[in-house]
Every structure is written in C-alpha cells, then in structure tokens.
Amino acid sequence: MIEYPEVVGLIDSGWNEEHGYCVRGGFKGGMYKAREPNSQMIANELYGAINANRDFFRPWLPWVDSIKSPADEMPIVESLADRTTCKYYLRLNGWLTGMVGVVREDKKTGTMEIGYWHDPRYNGYGVMIWAVGKAEMLCFLYGGAKKVEIRCATENKAARRIPERLGYRQEGILPAAKKMPSGVVHDIVVYSKTLSNWLERPTGLQNVNWYWKDLPWPKTYIDQWEKYYKLKKEMAKGKQK
Ligand SMILES: CC(C)(COP(=O)(O)OP(=O)(O)OC[C@H]1O[C@@H](n2cnc3c(N)ncnc32)[C@H](O)[C@@H]1OP(=O)(O)O)[C@@H](O)C(=O)NCCC(=O)NCCS
To answer: Are 149 and 162 in contact (CB under 8 A)?
Structure first.
C-alpha cells in the first residue's frame, strides 16, 4: 500500500548544484501531513493564510472565494492526514505558509498533476521550487507515477518559473482552457516530466554526500535512494516505461 512520508524536512537549504535551485532566507520547517483528519488548528491556519491573501490568489485559484470559513478547509485537512495521498502543507519558522500536492491523478496512464499555492509574504525565496521538487520525487517513488504534470495559466509568471526551473518540458498550450469565477478565460500551459526523465536527473532526492558525510542517514533517505535504484534497475530491464 502507498504510504507517503509524514514529514519532508527543509534541510537542503544550500545551493543545490546538481538540481540548480537554492532555498534562501534561512527558514526552518518543511512539508507536513496532518496528524489528525479533523485538526481544527490546521483548518484555522489554512483559512488564515488564504483569507489574508485573497486578492493575491484570486486571479489564479478558482476556488479561493468558496473558502468562507475554517470549516470549508476540513476536507483539505482530511486529505492532508491521509497517508495514501500526496498532499502536504508547508510550515516555515512555525507559520503555515502554503500547500503542495497532487490535485489530479489518472490511474490508467499513471499521470499525476501537482498544484501549489504559497503565502506571498514568503514568495521569492525558492521554497516552492524546493517543495515541488520534493512532491515530484514522492509521486515517482511512492505514488508509482509514470509522468508528473504541472498546468498554469500562461500569464502566471511566478507559477511557470517553477516547472521551468525544475527542468519540465513544455508539452503545449491549451487555448481558452480555464474560466475563472471573474469571467476571465485563461490559456493553460502544460508542463510534464516523465519517469525516465526524472530517473536521469532525480530532483528532490536528498543530496546527502556533503551534508551528512559522517552522520547516519535518516531512514527515509535510505528508503528513497533504495526505491530510486530499484526503479532505475527495472527501467534498465524494460519493466518500466
Ligand atoms: C506561484 C507561487 C506558488 C510561487 O511561490 P514562491 O514561494 O514565490 O516560489 P519560489 O520562491 O520557489 O519561486 C519560484 C520562482 O518564481 C519567481 N517569482 C516569485 N514571485 C514572482 C513574481 N511575483 N513575479 C515573477 N516571478 C516571481 C521566483 O523568483 C522564482 O524564480 P527564480 O528562482 O528563477 O527567481 C506563489 O506565487 C503563489 O502561490 N501564487 C498564486 C497561486 C498560484 O498561482 N498557484 C499555482 C497555480 S498553477
């Protein structure tokens, strides 16, 4: 059975030479699943982060105005507590600042789409590039994804930078594909990364060589590297496409 890790700690905050991104700002925290499916505290915090930034999110997130109280966040809290779904909230220096995770899954083709939002007070530090890189690794290693997709409005420059920085391929642009509650209709750009692309350049796998040189590695990192090598072997033998 799929079981995503409960916590993905933000420890690789130096320049990541290999994957070409860097988390700035000296934050402590990471990506977390909720411990309980009915956590009122997390519902309140999610609501607070969205409510304080409605004007910022409204052009890009069609659901923003349907969140009218913390109670409307309860289904999200439930999915955050579900270890079989790849959904995480972000916490930086104690504050809940955003969310990242799978928003759509096609089990037949093994395609998972990753979505994200991040409190603008914490934008521009590279945290979401880091988080999407981790989410992608979790989809391939734990979720069995064959392809990860990211879809953004063509005008959404900040959102597009993320798949571009993470080496996604632009598959195409869907003209007039998404109507927002305001009536604005966006063209949608589709980015993707296949399992074989990812195995060549495994973004999100903890680069432990320099940081943990003489330390015992946490078990999740060992698990992740083992899963990675297993997949690579299967791919070489032609068991994976
Ligand atoms: C898109 C979003 C998640 C980016 O969050 P973030 O914390 O700034 O992400 P990062 O710091 O990792 O930065 C991502 C890239 O976008 C750039 N960026 C951030 N804000 C930007 C802005 N307002 N304009 C242009 N570029 C911007 C960053 O500089 C970075 O690129 P760089 O490293 O090459 O400079 C956030 O702005 C957001 O929640 N937007 C609204 C919701 C949304 O659009 N979600 C995505 C739907 S597909």
So the answer is: no
